[in-house]
Each structure stands twice: as structure tokens, then as C-alpha cells.
Specification:
The strands form four sheets. Strands 2-11-15-13-12-16 form a six-stranded antiparallel beta barrel. It is elongated and about 135 Å long. It starts with a helix and ends with a helix. By secondary structure, it is α+β, with helices and mostly antiparallel strands.
Length: about 350
Amino acid sequence: MKRFIITLVVLGLLGGGGYQLFTYLSEQGDAKKAQRIRTDISKRRDLESVVSASGEVLPLLNSIVKSEISGRITIVKVKEGAAVRKGDPLLELDRTSLETRVREAERSLQAEQLRLDKAERNFQRLKELFAKQFVGEKEYLDAQTDYQLAQLNLEIAQARLDDAAEDLSKTTILAPHDGIVTRLDVVDGEVISGATSVSNGTDLLTIAQLKELYMEADINEVDIERLSLGQLAQLRFDAIPGFQLDGEIGVIALSARKDGSVRVFPIEVLFEATDARVRPGISATVDVPVDSVEAAVSVLLSGVFSAEDGSSYVFVKNGEAWQQRSVEIGINNLQYIEITSGVAEGDVIALSRPRAFRQND
């Protein structure tokens, strides 16, 4: 019995010691793990600072074609996707009633011309008789008035003919400029309304120039002063990976607008589409280079910390310890940041605050 008790005591001591040893080793492991932080080595890199924004590609010249007169479409001469030149016929409206108007106006003009000829002969006859005092002044003046009225009626008839002929010419809808028919909204036989001061009229089709395009984007008010008209830019397209085009800033808005809680300035980046895959409506990203440096000492952005006074600092490995060091920074490319002073090439930089410095927060 005594030997059994002694065995239990020994086993208890061994178990307790083993637990203490396990706890100590675990704590040491956690401490080392806590001290292990991600680092970066400062290197010389070529950096380019850019202002980036996303937006939509739109045609620089885009027209919704409408008719000036109402009528029924007799034939549509183009299809969606067709290329047209300025002045090309796009569709025809029924001409029957307008051709009748033109014929009536022509007959009316002929009748007024005959009346004018008659009034002129009568006036000339009475003018000669009045000079010989064979007729009174009243008859002479009445003939003169009839002649002048005939002249006015002829001018009115000519104006009505011109108006009817112009309306007849409007039955052929012509392309307002070169471009591609990007949308066709009507079919043969459809009755349309003309665009007037009281009506917007029927949208017939849309013609856009697909060579000269622009991208509309919103730039944060913090970055807008870094941009200028004519500044070069690169455009990338979500739908065409690995492809980019050059453009330039053509428009910078004079006033800001609110986008949620942020104030932005709309800009337009002009470019020429050299690839048929670049079409109006697709999304794009514009990168505008604003500054660059070559062979600059730089580290990852996450390795630079900001103090309350606006200054910057890093944590540099010094032997087995970390040293907080103030630095001067330059440009960044959203991944790496230039260090103009305070860090030498090859320094090991902490990417998060070391444990020893967390206690001072």
C-alpha cells in the first residue's frame, strides 16, 4: 500500500511538471509567432504616379434622326450596322398627298401668272389713254392697283409652291453626317409623326461615328488640379484584356458635382478607335500619368505609416530589434512609394507595426 501511494505521488509530480513545461513552450511559441511580421526590402524602382478613373465609352458625334413631317414610311433603305455618308437616303415617306399639293400649287401659280399678264396689259392700255386724257384718273389708278395686286398674288402662289416642294423633298430622310446606323427603330409601313415645336416626333434611327470616341469619367476633387487639357492618357477596356489605346483629355468640367459623399469633376478623354472591338457603351479605365521617377528607393505602401502631425515614418530592422525612423516620401504608383530620405537601399522594412511599438499606441 505504501509503495502504491509513493507511485501515485511520483506520477502526479511528473504530470504537473509536464504540464508546466508544455505551457511554457506554448507561450514561447506564441511570443515568437507574434514577433514574426511581414517585411519588405527597400529597392530601387522606376515609379510612375497616375490618376485613374473608370467610365463609359461614348461616340463623339451621335445623332437621333427624326422627320420634319408626319407620314407613312414606304421604304427603309438601310439596316442596323450599315455605314452611311452624309446625304445618303435613309428612308422614304409616302409622297402621294404632297405631290398633289405641288401640282395644285403649280396650277395656282400658272393662273396667277395669267391674271398678272392680263392686269399688266390693262394697266399699260389705260396708262396710254390716261396720258391722252381719254380716261379719268380713277380708272387709271384702279388698273394700276389691280396690276400690283396681281404681282403680289403671283409671289404668294410662288411661295406656296416652294413650300409644297420643300415638304415633298422632306419625304426622303437623309443622313446628317457620316457614321454607322447603331439603332433602327422603325419598319416599312409605320406611320410616324414629325418633329415640331409642340412634338418631339418619332425617333427613326441613330447614327454614330465609331472612329472618334470619348470616355467620360469622374475625377476626385483631390486629383483634378493634377490634370490639364491636352494631357496624354492611356485607356484600358474590361472587355478587351491586355489591350490599350492612347488618348488625351479634351474636356475638364469647370464645376464639381456630388457622387454620394464625394465631390468629383467630370472629364472627357478623346481617342480614336483603332480596333473594331472598342464600341460605344463598353466600360473603360483611364490612367493619366502625372509624375515619374527613375531608380528611386522605394518600399511597399503598407510599410509607411502616418503620424498625427502628417509626417511619415517606417520601422527599420536593426539587428534583432526594430527602429522607428522618420522618412520623407515622394510619389507612389498605388503599390510602391518613393522614399526620398530616411531609408537606404537594402533596408528591411516592417509592413505592420512591431509588437514593441504597439504598446505605445
